[in-house]
Amino acid sequence: MQDNNLSDIEINEQRIVKNKELNLLEALIPVICLMALLAYNIFFVDDQEWFGAYTNQIILLIGGGIAAIVGVFNKVSFNLMGKEIWENLKSVFVPILILFLVGALAGTWLVSGIIPAMVYYGLQVLSPEIFLPASVVIAAIISIATGSSWTTSATVGIALIGIGSALGIPTGMIAGAVISGAYFGDKMSPLSDTTNLAPAMAGTDLFTHIRYMAFTTVPTVLVTIIIFSILSATIDTTGNADISNLLSSINNTFNITPLLFIVPVVVIALILMKTKPLIALLTGVVLAVIVAFIFQPEILTSLSDSKFAAIINSILTDTQIATDNEKLNELFSSGGMNGMIWTILLICCAMIFGGIMDAIGALARITNELLKIATTVFGLFASTVFSCLGLNVIASDQYLAIVIPGKMFKKAYQDKNLAPENLSRTLEDSGTVTSVLIPWNTCGAYQSGVLGVGVAEYFVYAIFNWLSPITTLIFAALSIKIRQTTNK
Fold it and tell me: Which of 23, 37, 24, 92 has the alpha carbon at shortest distance from 66?
């Protein structure tokens, strides 16, 4: 979930553009070109930098340009394309601000000693043997309480990455565990916007949707925890023998005290009180600045001649704090707001591509074709799953991956006497959770940017996220908990 209210992003106001002039092949041309360019860049270009550091952004813009050409040949005006692009960009304005604040939060929480304190105490509590399943559970609890996978990653997720890295656990595994737990909580929390959006699109109520979703979601997260438990028991870590040295290095560099936890506790409390995420994160930055002046004056002095300049640098640019341990030197670094520029540009380029695809009617055409092949109940569920997956790739936004299939498939479920909660559950099982598996999707870009771990690194370990659509298809194939309207 992105940290927006539904009213902020006006999801229910998003239009689905249909274009009778556009055939399926034409609708697929931009998608095929985009996939081909991305595949070529991944498999044949050294360091995946065909166009430098911003290769993925350029490829998305090229895909958008190809879509625009297809649109012109099908009598779509540039005015309509521009309007849809603008609507898409407006929808991610708040997430972009959140990303900037997360960058500032990471920098200030580093120089204030908050992140080092989390690592310091976490190393003493979370052993490698239980770390990964514990990370899933911790992230799930926070996400259920806050209703936000984004907030969970930006707070406890960052801390868990730091602790796990110090223990010698691969960051891809840690990020996968955090994301798995965060998206479980996101799905099951009544505070989540996607959890409210899916039943609204399908025509059922919130708590019926959550109860019905539990049939597929709970088994999936249990399997996820079991797999991570096995991984934790078998993983070859390097952290155990080195923990005393790590603790000593942290303690010698920072003024470590439990009082530093006041800041994250205040931020989480504000989120639980339904304070707007922008205000909660900004509060976390301001409090961290105050704490830095009080508890870490030596750190600020070591970073710059002026303590105030050190704070500004931690908010805006790169910050690296030197310790006597090489592993910690890599861990205790932050890019500040500047570190979020790549992610923000990726989101903007994805929104441009998705906006043009929507404007020319390609999204509606592709979804309609999927609907045509849904002749059986399982076929209908499968078409919904693949439609959500496809829209997460094409439109680069999880909201559109819920809204468009929700509107398109609603009548088909009614015609087959399927209760609306079947559709709402499938939308969440395949639309919400898979968005984080796409590098250029807003969720994939956000999570990889915040956690500092590439999507390719955590993809396999985001077990809950790729297992969820498989679970919902298994339930459909075996006719398990497929509620009929005639039974109600």
Answer: 37
* Cβ atoms of residues 398 and 148 within 8 Å: no
d(C-alpha 488, C-alpha 485), whole Å: 5
Give me the mean pLDDT over the 136-153 stretch. Answer: 82
| 456: its two tokens | 């390719």
Q: How far is CA 288 from CA 107, 159, 315, 335, in A?
A: 9, 15, 11, 16
Pull the structure tokens for residue 439.
């590098």
Q: Which residues of 201-212 are buried (b: 16+ CB within 10 A; e: fewer)?
A: bbebeeebbbeb
Q: What are the tens digits of pLDDT across the range 304-342?
A: 889 999 999 999 988 889 888 776 776 688 888 988 888
Alpha carbons 53 and 169: distance in angstroms, whole number: 27
Give the pLDDT confidence of 188-228 residue by residue, as tens digits.
887 677 887 788 778 888 778 888 999 999 999 999 999 99
pTM: 0.73
In tens, the pLDDT along 49-70 reads 666 777 778 888 999 999 999 9
Contacts (Cβ under 8 Å, ≥6 apart) of 488: 419
Q: Is the pLDDT of residue 21 over 90?
A: no
Structure tokens at 29: 């041309």
Residue pLDDT, tens place only, 379-422: 999 989 998 998 888 877 787 788 778 877 887 888 888 999 99
Contact, 383 vs 409, CB < 8 A?
Answer: yes
C-alpha span between 61 and 271 (Å, rounded): 36
Asked if residues 349 and 385 have their Cβ atoms less than 8 Å apart, the reply is: no
Give the length of the chain.
488
How far apart CA 7 and CA 47 sit, in angstroms, is 41
Average pLDDT over residues 230-235: 87
What gap in Å lies between CA 257 and CA 263, rounded to an integer? 12
- Burial letters 155-190, b for 16+ CB under 10 A, else e: bbbbbbbbbbbbbbbbbbbbbbbbbbbbbbbbbbbe
